Amino acid sequence: METKSKPEPRQEPHHHHPAKKTKINHPMEEEEQHPSASTSNQDQESSSESMTFPDFPHEILVEILSRLPVKSLVKFKCVSKSWLSLTSNPHFIKAHLRISANKDDFRHHGLIFTVLPPNSHSHLKQCSLRSALNVEMSSIQVIDIDYPMKSPHKSVWVVGSCDGLVCIAIEENDLFLWNPAIRKYKKLPDLAIRLKHGCYIIFGFGYDMLNDDYKVVAIFCVFRGGNDYETEVRVYSLKHDSWMRIENFKGGVPLDDSGKYANGKLHWAASRGFDSNHSWQIVSLDLGNESYGEVERPEYGDGVYDWTFGVLGGCLTVLCDYEWTRVDVWVMKEYGVRDSWSKVVSVPYLDDPEKSRYSFPVCLLKNGEILLVLGSGLVLYNPQSNTFKYRQINGVEEVNMYAESLVSPLFIEESSRVIMSKAAEIRGES
After folding, report:
1. Is 395 helix (H, G, I), strand (E, B) or coil?
2. Based on CB atoms within 10 Å of each CB, which residue in 36, 84, 128, 374 is the most buried?
3. In the chain, pLDDT over 90 holds for what percent of residues?
4. pTM
């Protein structure tokens, strides 16, 4: 069937909801000298350092540093004040992000796994994308990760990721913006709304290109009986560190899944009603002007048992499931252009005794291979050779990919420090 009915309020959706250490020694790094070392040696070191950095061409320095892993850059902040200033500069952070987020090169990408053990609460684990793609390994080495409010007694899920920032929700009560690469996070102000029976809440996270801001959207849905419902929408701005109510959701009722970010907008699959006679559509919210719109879905034909909606490689994507036979992956290659929907790959089902279903793809590689979640593991499928590589990960519910970056969730605090530092430089203070 083609349509998808709305799940019961506050239930877990079946396909979402519970995305290298390089050391480079500083050229002037030496062992610590004894306090009795001569003043002349100290003067020579001071003179040498003062000559090394100011005389090093700034453009070349930026070019080199912008290609290094985040972990190395975090260490290099201690090299000198000039390096600290450079790596904290918003223009450098954006330049580094452009390279790290390169969709054809996944050297600086990581995976966050939402793991749900039997009779327990969900928690997060991680690994590098490169290790997940390593065909020489039969299993993936995932490791525990420290995230905000980590507790064995509270469930966590990933709302979304953007520019290295990951938005996570703890028990629908606490929201955090978190950068796992630099280990910084910010707790969002409370929404101050108590969910009642017949209510559910969904979120979305993305970047406001118009105002250079990161925003979280919360949509409250209240059932009034039958097909009657109400919505209330609030938007959090990282720049202003506050929530603001905007126009109610347009385009029906959003299905119980997080918003998907692409092209400066968040997108939700929505239905005009709650019975199977209502088809679904893609509703967008522009994070810049906070206006709603609609994106036409692909014409994938009949026979689709189920579907999953998301973003792949920055493009809106729909995965169509033909029960136990195959899944088709449709990608909108030009945003907003209906005719640009294209079926990029069909993935046959494995002979799986557990009858697991494919979840939304993790990534699509340049060589045509596609990485998907199947049951409690990852499948790397090569359509040209029609071969599979399967890697087991016990209890995995969802996988989210993120690009390592220097983007900080502490926007207000760190912006203030940069301004104060610049003012001190102008005054000639050390």
Report:
1. coil
2. 374
3. 48
4. 0.81
